[in-house]
Amino acid sequence: MKNKFFLLFEDCRIVEGYTNAIIYDLNRSANSNHIPKSLVPFIEKCKSIPVLDVINSYENVEEQQIAQEYLDFLLEREFGFLADSHVKDQMGKLNLDYETASTVQNAIICCNDHTFKNINSIISQLNELLCEDIEFRCVIKSEENFNALCNLLNDSVFQTIIFRMDYEEFLTEKLIENCSLQNPRISHTFVYGAPVFKETEQFTFLTDKADYYNDCGKINKDKFVINQPFYLESQSCNTCLHKKISIDFEGNIKNCPSMHHDHGCIKDKSLVAAIDEPKFKTAWFIKKDEIEICSDCEFRHMCLDCRAFIDNPENPYSRPSTCGYNPYIGKWLGEAGYKSFEECGVISNEQSLSIDHDKIASLNEELWAE
Ligand code: SF4
Asked: What is the pTM of this model?
């Protein structure tokens, strides 16, 4: 091990939060792991100083043992490797630029009898924009309209199609199965307000009614995504709204149907004209590193953002209000020891976020002291 350097693989990325840090393994998400924050400076030093020298630089034997344990853990989990000096100098760097060919990556289109008359034009515009993924939220009363919509999708460029629909008698299992067979890019159909619950690979009938505008943007661990495209996108873009376009049930063009602000109505304006407005793209580039509180959270590059439901609607950089995580103490709402931001001395005011570091330090000492 003499003269060897310890290097993290480029697809293993450390993301530091206020209290915790995580190594994101971008190609093996399940291998990702929380690490003590004290391990971060150790890994940094090992990039430029041989690992044995780093371990021996700790003054007492106990610290040296801990450093050796850190190294064993990192090697065992294959987060990095021991390298000679010449390998270290030749290591390529992960390119953090995020680019995709399409102008629009995903769309949410709300369809009812009011917006249905424009559906032909909407789909052909989205085809031209090379939209990859589309979600339809439908309140369609006639089987004829539903079939017409499915037929329009057959020749579309969309890679995945999701339907969320209000239950109507014509929406039988057979009809949905036939549509999915005809168009395998329909990944799933959710039907809300159905008489009975039923789930198959193609559809889910749910007895609850849909609340298409409010039932969105919930932040929880189950929705975290660890992979390279998502990580790269989150470095410079918003993880929900980037290259997204939506049309609400009134025909208004928006970043997301749940947002209040619109960019004109589809009957008078093309999607391209709406996207070309500089204000439309502002939300595309609000990244997690700029959002209050999220910028202190170790989950920020695996977390879907939401700009529709935020703590302070006057501040576009405020935290998603549906999140129950407090990164200053590393606790989720409902967990033993959880404290609110106010209890931690974290106060968001109009100018800035004020953080009482001493208060948080003493709370963390109480919470985490062994
Ligand atoms: S604090 Fe922000 S980044 Fe962290 S889990 Fe909540 S919403 Fe996601």
From this structure: 0.92
